[in-house]
Structures are given as structure tokens and as C-alpha cells.
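Section 5: illustrative case.
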């Protein structure tokens, strides 16, 4: 029974990492399409976001008109 619980925890963590990675990739594609080329430092910042932060960024980017909006959003969540 204990092995089953441990396996479930590992499987759940791996699933969340995969979901996070997929969402980050999608958000980066959307940002590149909407704002143009993103500097590597901005991409790196986005790649450190939690799953919930990436989901929030996915919603917020719909209102972005330029890279300054993205920078402001990243600064706001860092504070």
C-alpha cells in the first residue's frame, strides 16, 4: 500500500511538471506572436513561474499591447 501512495505522489508531481512545461511553451508562443521576439531574460523569467502564475499570465497576455506590459506584469508578481 505504501509503495502505491509513493508512486501516486511521484506520478502526480511528474504530471504537474509536464502540465507546467506545456503551459509555459504555449504562453511563450502566444507572447512571441503577440509581442514579437522576447529577450532571453524575459523567457527565463517566465520559465521560473509556478503553474498558477503561468495560467494567470496566459489570461493577462490577452491585454498586452507591448513588451512593457509584460515587464510590468512580471514585476508586479515579483513584488
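Designed sequence:
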Amino acid at each position: 500500500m505504501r509503495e502505491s501512495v509513493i508512486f501516486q505522489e511521484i506520478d502526480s508531481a511528474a504530471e504537474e511538471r509536464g502540465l507546467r512545461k506545456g503551459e509555459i511553451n504555449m504562453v511563450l508562443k502566444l507572447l512571441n506572436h503577440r509581442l514579437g521576439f522576447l529577450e532571453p531574460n524575459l523567457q527565463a523569467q517566465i520559465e521560473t513561474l509556478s503553474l498558477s502564475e503561468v495560467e494567470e499570465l496566459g489570461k493577462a497576455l490577452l491585454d498586452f499591447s507591448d513588451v512593457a506590459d509584460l515587464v510590468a506584469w512580471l514585476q508586479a508578481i515579483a513584488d
